[in-house]
Amino acid sequence: MARAEELSKSQQEGITKIKSELATLDKQIRPLVSLLVDPDIDSSAKKTVSRQIGELEQRREQLNGAMGLVAEVATETTERLGRAVRQALDEARALLSSVSSPAEFNRFVARFVGPIVVGGDGSIQQKTPVGMLSHPTGDIAGGGFEPPTSGL
Questions:
Q1: Residue 130 — φ and ψ, nearest 5°?
Q2: For 77, how many CA atoms within 13 A lie in the half-sphere containing its CB?
Q3: What is the mean pLDDT of residues 35-51?
Q4: Do the beta carbons of residue 108 and residue 95 sit within 8 Å?
Q5: Do 11 and 4 form a contact (C-beta atoms < 8 A)?
Q6: For 100-139, what is each residue's pLDDT tens digit?
């Protein structure tokens, strides 16, 4: 999920940057268009203005293409992430259905959930590892059903 959030944020930043540049291009093009229709501007100046507008329009097309590419990459990333999540869930489901002992359940929790703390009221919270205590034993679901040296 953290990786998905990173990718999403990066893609949003890319889209925001492209939209900002498109808005800047529009601001640059507007006054040039009014010069083209101004009867007081000579034809050679209008050709120069027309060329500038053409260059800005070309840049706009590039930015629109880039926006499409960002959307395409986002879709591909989402599809890959979806496949990875489905695969992990299928694997977890298969493993959970084969759990037959507290030790196997503890290994399942360690692999798919991570360290958890069971409160006195039965509430469950994910435990954040601190320093060397990254593998707490006493408060993990199933802790106490097996010797602390099992699974080593």
A1: -125, 115
A2: 16
A3: 89
A4: yes
A5: no
A6: 888 888 888 888 888 878 788 888 887 776 554 444 444 4
**9 forms bridges with which residues in the sheet?**
none
Structure tokens at 43: 């034809």
| Burial of residue 106, with CB atoms counted within 10 A of its CB: 0-12 exposed, 13-18 middle, 19 or more buried | buried
Say which DSSP state 133 is in: B
Q: Which amino acid is at 132?
A: M
Q: What's residue 52's pLDDT?
A: 94
Q: Burial letters for 4-29: b for 16+ Cβ neighbours within 10 Å, e otherwise?
A: eeebeeebeebeeebeeebeeeeeeb
* pTM, two decimal places: 0.53
The values of phi and psi at residue 125, to 5°, are -135, 145
